[in-house]
C-alpha cells in the first residue's frame, strides 16, 4: 500500500469518480498511482485509485470545496484523453516533471498556494497587520428558537470561512466572549481586502437569517370564487402522464356572467398579497448560487391531501370548505401540461390569429435567428431534457465484493466496495437547438445541472397559484433552481451521452407527431426521466413578456401534450448573476425586487420608476395580470367547455350532498 492510500484508508471519500467499462483505459496500476500522486500534489486533494480484478474502477477523492473540484477537473480531463490513447502513451514520461515550462509554472502556483494557506491559520506571532475591523453577531440569531452562533454556522474554528480567508487574504478570528458576544475580528494587509471580507461575511450572515426567518408560504387565490359555491371532483383524465390526486371544478351558478373575472383587475388586497410573496421569494435567493428559472405556467390543477377521496369524488364539497382546507392539509398541484394534442393544436392556431394581443419574436431567448414577419410564420425551437443517474454514483450490482480464494487476505476496507448511497443522485442534461441564419437548426452547447440529493425535479422557491376553478386550471408563479455543473467537472459519460443526442430535421414540422430527437443508448447513462419540447414563442404586444406554447413528448405517451408559460425577457439576465456566485457573494439587485422583475411599463426596469400610488411596488404586477387574463380569454374561446360543465343556479344541485372534510 502506498503512503497516500495508507493515509486515507478507512475514511469516507468526499467524492467518487466512477469509471464505467467503456471509459477504463488500458494502463498499469503503477502508472495510475503516479498520476494520482501528481494530482494530489497539484490540487491538495487526496486522489486514491481503486482497482477491481487489476482494472481501474474508480477514483476516491479526499478533500473539501475547491480542492475536490480541482481534482475532479484533472481526473476527468485525463479520462477523456486516456480513452483515445494506448497504454504506452500514458506512461510516467508524460508527467509534468518532464515538461520544463509546466514544471516552472507549477512551482509558482505551489508557492502562491502556500502563501494563501497562511490565512487559514491564526495570525502568526509578531506579525503586524495595519487594517482590522470587528463585526458583531446579530442578536436575533441568539434569541431564535434554535440559538445560532458563529461556531454553529461556520464550524468550531470557523473553517467554513476558509474560502473567504484565502480569496480576500485576511485573517478571521472569533474574539473571546465580550459585550456583545460572538464578535468576529477581520485583519489584513490592505483596507480594501478587509472591507471586501466584511461584506462577504455579512452576506453569509444575511443568508443564515433568511433561511432561519423566511416566511415564504404557498399562496392560493381563486379568481372566480364569486361565480359559484359548490365544487365537484373527478379523477384525472386518461391522457395525463401522471394520475395522482383528483381534479376539482367549480359549479358555476351565474351562467351569463361566467368568466367575468377575466375583465376585472385583481383586488388591491390580493394584489398586495401576491407582491409581498414575490418580494419574499425573490429576496430569499439573492445569496444562493444556482441556475434559476422564473416562469408563470398555466397548467391543469390537481389536489392532494388528507381526505376521503372516494367520498369527495362522489358528493363534492362547499367552496368555503375547500378554501379552508387548501390552507391546511390539502395541497394544490399545478401540472406542466394544459391540453392534449388535438386541443393544443386549436389553441396554437388561435394564438397565431390574435395579432392584436401577440407579436412575432425570435425563437428561444431572442438573441439568435430572425424574427418572423407574422405570427403565422413563427418557427419553433427545440429542447431535449434528460434526467440521468449520476455516473459517479456506483451501481450496487457492480459493487459486490471480489471473490477471494481461501487463505488469501481480505482487501482493505475502501477497496472492498464503494460506499453505497442512501439516496439516488441525478444529473440533468439539457440540449437546445436554435434557428440559424439559413433557416436550419444549430445544436447549442449542452448544459449540465445537478439536482438536490434524492430529488428528480428542481428545487422550488416560490408557490403562488391564481386559480381558475371553473376551468380546473392554475396560473402558477414558480421559481426553480438547480446547481450548475461546469463542463470540466462533468463526467465523460454525460458528455458522450450529450454528443449522441441528435435532431431529425424531417420530424420538425408542425404536423409531425414523431419524436424529433433521439439519443445513442449507453449502458452507463441510466435515464430516469426524459422529455422533448417543441417551443413556439410569441411576444405580448408592447411588453417584454414572452408566451411559450410548448408541445411536450413524455416517455409514456406517443403524442405530445401542450403547455403554456410566460416569462419576461429580462428575467434570465437578472438571475444569471446567481449562477457563478462565490461564497459570501450576493446578487447586485439595487432596486425594489418587484419593480425590477415586473417593470412598470412591462418592457424594462428603471431605477427611478414611480408607481401611481396603488401599490408601493408599482403597477408592474397589475399590468402583467391584465395580460394574463387576455391570454386566458383567448384560450377559453379556443377550447369551449362542454355544456354539462356549466350549470345555472339550482340546476341539478338539489341532490348534491356536501361532505364535511373533517370527518
TrEMBL record:
Residues 273-600 form the DUF7905 domain. InterPro entries: DUF7905. Residues 388-417 are annotated as: Disordered. This is DUF7905 domain-containing protein.
Amino acid at each position: 500500500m502506498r503512503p497516500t492510500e495508507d493515509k486515507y484508508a478507512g475514511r469516507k471519500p468526499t467524492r467518487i469518480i466512477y469509471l464505467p467499462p467503456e471509459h477504463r483505459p488500458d494502463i498499469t496500476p503503477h502508472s495510475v498511482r503516479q498520476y494520482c500522486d501528481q494530482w494530489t500534489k497539484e490540487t491538495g486533494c487526496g486522489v486514491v485509485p481503486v482497482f477491481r480484478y487489476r482494472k481501474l474502477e474508480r477514483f476516491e477523492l479526499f478533500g473539501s470545496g475547491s480542492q475536490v473540484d480541482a481534482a475532479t477537473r484533472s481526473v476527468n480531463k485525463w479520462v477523456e484523453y486516456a480513452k483515445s490513447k494506448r497504454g504506452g502513451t500514458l506512461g510516467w514520461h508524460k508527467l509534468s516533471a518532464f515538461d520544463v515550462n509546466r514544471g516552472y509554472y507549477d512551482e509558482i502556483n505551489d508557492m502562491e498556494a502556500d502563501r494563501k494557506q497562511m490565512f487559514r491559520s491564526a495570525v502568526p506571532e509578531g506579525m503586524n497587520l495595519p487594517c482590522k475591523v470587528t463585526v458583531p453577531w446579530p442578536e436575533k440569531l441568539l434569541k431564535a428558537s434554535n440559538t445560532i452562533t458563529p461556531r454553529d454556522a461556520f464550524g468550531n474554528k470557523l473553517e467554513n470561512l476558509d474560502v473567504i480567508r484565502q480569496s480576500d487574504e485576511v485573517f478571521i478570528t472569533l474574539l473571546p466572549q465580550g459585550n456583545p458576544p460572538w464578535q468576529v475580528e477581520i485583519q489584513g494587509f490592505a483596507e480594501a481586502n478587509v472591507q471586501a471580507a466584511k461584506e462577504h461575511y455579512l452576506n453569509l450572515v444575511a443568508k443564515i437569517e433568511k433561511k432561519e426567518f423566511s416566511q415564504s408560504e404557498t399562496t392560493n387565490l381563486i379568481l372566480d370564487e364569486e361565480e359559484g359555491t359548490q365544487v365537484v371532483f373527478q379523477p384525472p383524465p386518461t391522457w395525463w402522464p401522471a394520475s395522482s390526486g383528483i381534479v376539482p371544478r367549480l359549479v358555476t351558478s351565474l351562467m351569463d356572467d361566467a368568466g367575468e373575472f377575466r375583465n376585472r383587475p385583481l383586488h388591491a388586497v390580493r394584489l398586495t398579497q401576491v407582491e409581498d410573496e414575490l418580494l419574499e421569494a425573490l429576496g430569499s435567493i439573492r445569496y444562493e448560487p444556482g441556475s434559476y428559472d422564473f416562469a408563470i405556467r398555466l397548467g391543469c390543477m390537481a389536489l392532494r391531501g388528507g381526505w376521503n377521496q372516494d367520498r369527495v369524488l362522489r358528493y363534492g364539497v362547499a367552496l368555503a370548505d375547500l378554501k379552508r382546507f387548501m390552507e391546511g392539509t390539502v395541497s394544490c398541484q399545478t401540472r406542466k401540461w394544459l391540453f392534449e394534442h388535438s386541443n393544443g393544436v386549436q389553441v396554437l392556431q388561435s394564438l397565431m390569429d390574435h395579432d392584436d394581443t401577440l407579436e412575432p419574436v425570435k425563437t428561444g431567448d431572442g438573441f439568435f435567428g430572425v424574427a418572423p414577419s407574422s405570427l403565422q410564420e413563427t418557427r419553433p425551437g427545440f429542447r431535449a431534457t434528460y434526467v440521468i443517474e449520476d455516473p459517479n454514483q456506483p451501481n450496487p450490482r457492480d459493487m459486490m465484493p471480489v471473490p477471494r480464494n481461501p487463505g488469501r487476505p481480505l482487501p482493505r476496507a475502501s477497496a472492498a466496495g464503494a460506499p453505497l448511497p442512501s439516496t439516488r443522485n441525478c444529473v440533468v442534461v439539457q440540449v437546445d437547438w436554435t434557428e440559424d441564419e439559413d433557416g436550419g437548426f444549430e445544436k447549442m452547447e449542452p448544459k449540465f445541472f445537478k439536482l438536490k440529493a434524492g430529488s428528480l425535479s428542481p428545487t422550488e422557491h416560490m408557490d403562488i397559484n391564481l386559480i381558475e376553478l371553473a376551468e380546473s386550471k392554475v396560473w402558477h408563479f414558480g421559481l426553480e433552481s438547480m446547481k450548475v455543473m461546469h463542463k470540466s467537472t462533468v463526467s465523460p459519460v454525460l458528455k458522450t451521452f450529450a454528443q449522441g443526442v441528435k435532431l431529425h430535421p424531417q420530424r420538425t414540422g408542425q404536423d409531425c407527431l414523431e419524436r424529433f430527437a433521439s439519443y445513442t443508448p449507453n449502458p452507463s447513462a441510466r435515464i430516469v426521466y426524459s422529455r422533448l419540447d417543441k417551443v413556439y414563442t410569441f411576444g405580448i404586444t408592447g411588453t417584454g413578456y414572452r408566451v411559450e406554447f410548448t408541445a411536450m413528448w413524455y416517455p409514456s405517451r406517443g403524442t405530445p401534450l401542450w403547455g403554456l408559460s410566460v416569462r419576461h425577457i429580462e428575467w434570465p439576465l437578472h438571475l444569471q448573476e446567481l449562477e457563478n456566485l462565490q461564497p459570501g457573494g450576493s446578487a447586485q439587485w439595487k432596486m425594489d425586487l418587484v419593480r425590477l422583475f415586473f417593470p412598470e411599463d412591462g418592457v424594462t426596469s428603471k431605477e427611478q420608476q414611480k408607481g401611481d400610488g396603488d401599490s408601493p411596488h408599482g403597477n408592474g404586477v397589475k399590468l402583467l395580470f391584465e395580460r394574463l387574463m387576455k391570454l386566458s380569454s383567448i384560450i377559453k374561446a379556443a377550447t369551449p367547455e362542454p355544456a354539462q360543465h356549466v350549470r345555472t343556479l339550482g340546476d341539478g344541485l338539489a341532490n348534491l350532498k356536501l361532505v364535511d372534510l373533517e370527518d
